[in-house]
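Workshop exercise sheet. Pairs work together: one partner reads the sequence aloud, the other fills in the structure field after running the prediction. Swap roles for the next sheet.
Pair: D.N. / O.F.
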Amino acid sequence: MYSLLRPLLFALDAETAHHVTLASLKALRNLRLPPAATAPAGCERSIMGVRFSNPVGLAAGLDKNAEYIDALAALGFGFIEVGTVTPRPQPGNPRPRLFRVEQAQAVINRMGFNNEGVDRLVENVRRARFRGVLGINIGKNFDTPLERAAEDYVQCLRRVYPLASYVTVNISSPNTPELRRLQDSASLDALLGTISEERQRLADTHGRRVPLAVKIAPDLDGAQVGAIAELLHRHGIDAVIATNTTTARDGIAGMPHGDESGGLSGAPLAERAGGIVRQLSQALGHAFPIIGVGGIMSGADARKRVAAGASLVQLYTGLIYHGPALVRECIGALCRAD
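Structure field:
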């Protein structure tokens, strides 16, 4: 069915199509059409002390405000990640800010953490019926000075902690000014120290230790990856998500919209993101959980990312080009690989 609908959606600008698609999924879910997809037996994974029904998840960014959790879960994902959410609502960057690069099966976005704030997200999560694995991705407001970024992350962590299966610390969006500077060793050491201390206080209060993941950029060299890996170990971080979008423009030169500013995702990101996963696996050891995301457009891509060292994978841009069938394809590919 998606192959029939895609030309209609692609006739709309990318952000309008995004909202139409989500609203349509929600309407269908409310009508129980189609029935929720289920994974084949034997797909379960235990990662970060959390049990996943299958290893294929939804990446953050699609459902920023946690408005569509139940509808998206019906597609068969083993886990859903919502956000990125910030303490205060913010509009993000001016439109247009989302562009398809169709020749390359890619998307460029400069959304800028547009969201309705952490209080609204918490309300939406509480209303959802979904009882599977829910990750909540947190960030800082665009106007919070970098030296006070930890305050934003801590505020979000406190609010989402009782509701999250795991929490992702997003330090790698290219669309919030200077955010990627938090990946520098000294800044990241301080940030993770503060967040880890707060997590321990919250664990003592709630009687439950919620895993922490850190989402990193694909535009890192080997020394930077190694330094980040050491800090993840030092601060007891439970997983790393690799990767966010790239500021590079490999493979899209001269294509329509190829020169737009923002983060590039989709097929051109696959090699770069996969390389970061391999470097992380070597630096962290095979036992450390890596969630692979970026350029996964087929079941074969999902298998390659797991072979590179990922424990789980996430989808986003692939869904735009291939629709919900991609979820089932990736699940089947990874379960068959077992």
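Discussion prompt: The chain is about 40% helix and 15% strand. What would you look at next?
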